[in-house]
Amino acid sequence: MATILLFLRLSIAIRSTAASDANGNSTSRLDEVCKQTFDADLCIKALSIYPESQTFDFHGLAGLAVRAAASAAANISSYISGLLEEGSVEDDEDFQQCLYDCEENFVDAFDQLDELTVVIDNKEYEDVNLWVTVAETDRRMCDEGCKNASSEKKVKLVARSEEFSRLCGIVLNMTSFLATNHL
Ligand SMILES: *[C@@H]1O[C@H](CO)[C@@H](O)[C@H](O)[C@H]1NC(C)=O
Ligand SMILES: *[C@@H]1O[C@H](CO)[C@@H](O)[C@H](O)[C@H]1NC(C)=O
Ligand SMILES: *[C@@H]1O[C@H](CO)[C@@H](O)[C@H](O)[C@H]1NC(C)=O
Ligand SMILES: *[C@@H]1O[C@H](CO)[C@@H](O)[C@H](O)[C@H]1NC(C)=O
C-alpha cells in the first residue's frame, strides 16, 4: 500500500513538472496562483521554500500549500513539547495544562493534513473542506483551552497558531479555485 502511494505521489510530481515546463515562466506562476488567495505574501513565503514551487502547476502548488500547513502544525507541536520538556512553564499550571492539550491538537491537525495530501493528489477537491475544517477545529480547541492563560509565552504560540490558520485558508482558496474551474 505504502509503495503504491509513493508511486502515485511520484508520478503526480513528474506529471506536474512536465506540465509546467511546457508553460514556461514558473516564478510568475507561483505569484499568479498565490494572487488567487487572500494572503499572497504568506502564500509566496511559505511555498517558495520548496524547490518544486518553481516548476509545479496549480494542482502541484495546492499540494505544496498542504505540505506547508502540515509542516506548520508539526512545528507548533514540537515547539510546545519543547516548552513542556524544558520545564519553563512549570510555575504556570493553567498554561501547562492547556499546552498538553494543544500538543495533542496540533499532532492531530498534522495527521489530518498529512492524509489530505493523498486527497489532493487524487484531485478530490470537494472533500478538502472537511479535512481542513477538522484541522482548524483542532487549532481552535487549543486557542480556546489556553484562553485564560496569561503567560507571555502564549503570545508566540498564538502568532504561530494564527499563521497556521492562514495557511489552511490558503489551501482552501486554492482548492476551491481548482474545483470551480474544473482544473
Ligand atoms: C517571468 O516572470 C518574471 C517575473 O514576473 C518576469 O520578469 C519575466 O519577464 C518573465 N519571463 C518570461 C519569459 O515571461
Ligand atoms: C518549521 O521549522 C523548520 C525548522 O525550524 C523551519 O525550517 C520551517 O520553515 C518551519 N516551517 C513552518 C511552516 O513554519
Ligand atoms: C476561563 O475562565 C472563565 C471565567 O473564570 C471560565 O468560565 C472558563 O471555564 C475558563 N476557561 C478555561 C478553558 O479554563
Ligand atoms: C479565501 O479564504 C479566506 C479565508 O478563509 C476567505 O475569507 C475568502 O473568502 C476566500 N476567498 C476565495 C476566493 O475563496
Automatic annotation (TrEMBL):
NCBIfam families: PME_inhib. Keywords: Disulfide bond, Signal. PANTHER family: OS01G0111000 PROTEIN (PTHR35357:SF8), OS02G0537100 PROTEIN (PTHR35357). Residues 1-19 form the signal peptide. Residues 25-174 form the Pectinesterase inhibitor domain. It comes from Cocos nucifera. Belongs to the PMEI family. CDD domains: PMEI-like_1. This is Cell wall / vacuolar inhibitor of fructosidase 2-like. InterPro entries: Invertase/methylesterase_inhib, Pectinesterase_inhib_dom. SMART domains: PMEI. One of its GO terms (molecular function) is enzyme inhibitor activity.
